[in-house]
Amino acid sequence: MTKKKKRKLRLATAWLGGCSGCHMSFLDLDEELIDLLDRTDLVYGPLVDAKLFPENVDICLVEGAVTNLDNLKLARTIRRNSRQVISFGDCAVTGNVTSMRNRIPVEDLLTRVYHQARATTSGEGPDHLPELLPKALPLHRVIKVDVYLPGCPPAPERIEAVLTALIAGQPVALPPDMRSFG
Fold this sequence. Notes:
Elements: E1 9-15, H1 21-27, H2 31-39, E2 40-44, E3 57-63, E4 66-68, H3 69-81, E5 82-88, H4 90-94, H5 106-116, E6 132-137, E7 147-149, H6 156-167
Parallel strand pairs: 1-2, 1-3, 3-5, 5-7
Antiparallel strand pairs: 4-6
């Protein structure tokens, strides 16, 4: 009798309002990344050429705060289509640096950036940018989050510890030295 091959877990990553530092730390898994991809199929993220978030995702790491309507729509799609959602990094967990803009009303922010500053846009103008939310929000304020992975960015060892536990079907229990922010 032949053994049925175990299905690989479907892994996704997403980048909302943030700097991509968490994804850079993900890449810093180095050779562990190869082992990770032996156990999972990476089906969505900045490293994959998928245009739409897929269905039936087992684990999704979500980097960044929810800052605009496009982020909000993607976050809701991720939650609907993912078994486990991980708030990936301090911006997703707390709002962190991204939420520093929360002290400035959106209209004032847009006026300062697009009308008073000398910076130029792509020529399309602000009408073609996603509408900003009044505040940058941590991920758990808009969808249910299953696991929080702090750090700015999280060290590769933290990422590996979380993914190893989830892939093995075990609860995530980071040791105290891996629970810090910043």
